[in-house]
Design a protein that fits this description.
The chain contains 13 helices and 8 strands. The chain is α/β, with parallel strands linked by helices. It has a domain at 16-141 and 219-285: Rossmann fold (3-Layer(aba) Sandwich), CATH 3.40.50.1820. Helix 3 (87-100) packs across helix 4, helix 5 (144-159) packs antiparallel against helix 8 and helix 6 packs across helix 7.
């Protein structure tokens, strides 16, 4: 019998808190673990996601870092601004989060959209970033097939948030399609059923519009301007971009380290938390 996977089981025995910050006037939900005197680590989820993307990583990272996983602007239970969201909006909100938690400098790690935001933040605010991790990060290309797939799955899940539509959105992220991911589906279904979330998702999907995406993409000039030590972490089965794209991103960032996780899709931090935690923590600690 397959073992049931539960968000609560992942967090059992973990000393953590859940709450809300006022980040520049934006009510921002967070999960936090670790002594607040430790160096700060901020974790950013992907498009349409939420802080639970990191439930399997809080305990290991809390040994070394004051670890914050947030619902990004317009996502999860964080305030919805009511306009199309571009990368600068996410970065402005992120910097407000840094200020709200009293962090002059942070280690910053982002997956998918979170990686895109993290990279842009490292370009625009180099004085605030110690180390940077780009985990199956977006923002380097515009693949019409992938963009259309993200829109189709995401809008179907919020317009009619049945178990099947939300499960399809979650399963697409994963390499292992045999699992049901029930607890993740239930958590995201509740988020997507919030009043007004259809409009919120349309605002999130703005970056899948070719014209909007084009003015937000990062290229050699932007990646080349990153001064923080950087890890580009990719996977063998990422549905958004192949391994070559991950290597290309790493090649544009001075001194970047590249790591490949085999047998994972777009959520390596969840699918193979043990390997992810080891690679991630070793890099963040400079090992």
């Amino acid at each position: 019998m397959p073992e049931h996977e539960s968000i609560w089981s992942d967090l059992q025995g973990v000393t953590f808190s859940q709450g809300y910050l006022d980040a520049g006037g934006v009510r921002t939900r967070y999960l936090h673990a670790g002594d607040q005197d430790l160096p700060v680590l901020v974790l950013l989820h992907g498009s349409g996601g939420h802080a639970e993307a990191y439930v399997r990583n809080l305990e290991a990272h809390a040994e070394h870092f004051s670890t914050w996983a947030i619902d990004m602007l317009g996502h999860g239970y964080t305030d919805k601004p009511g306009h199309p969201l571009e990368i600068r909006h996410y970065v402005d909100h992120l910097v407000a989060v840094f200020d709200a938690i009293g962090a002059e400098r942070v280690n910053l790690s982002g997956e998918s959209l979170g990686g895109w935001v993290a990279a842009r933040a490292a370009v625009d605010h180099p004085d605030r970033i110690d180390r940077l991790v780009l985990n199956t990060a977006g923002g380097s290309q515009a693949d019409p097939e992938v963009m259309n797939r993200i829109i189709t799955l995401s809008m179907a899940a919020v317009e009619n948030p049945t178990w099947e539509t939300v499960q399809s959105r979650i399963t697409w992220l994963m390499a292992d399609k045999s699992k049901s991911y029930d607890d993740l589906v239930a958590s995201r279904q509740r988020i997507y059923r919030q009043p007004g979330f259809v409009a919120a998702m349309r605002d999130i999907m703005a970056l899948q519009d070719p014209k909007i995406r084009a003015r937000n993409l990062l290229g050699p000039a932007e990646y080349g301007a990153i001064t923080a030590p950087t890890l580009v972490l990719w996977t063998s089965d990422d549905p958004t971009a192949d391994v070559g794209e991950g290597r290309r991103i790493a090649s544009m960032i001075p001194g970047a380290r590249f790591e490949l996780m085999v047998g994972c899709g777009h959520w390596p931090q969840y699918e193979d938390a043990k390997t992810f935690n080891r690679l991630h923590i070793d890099f963040l600690l400079g090992r």
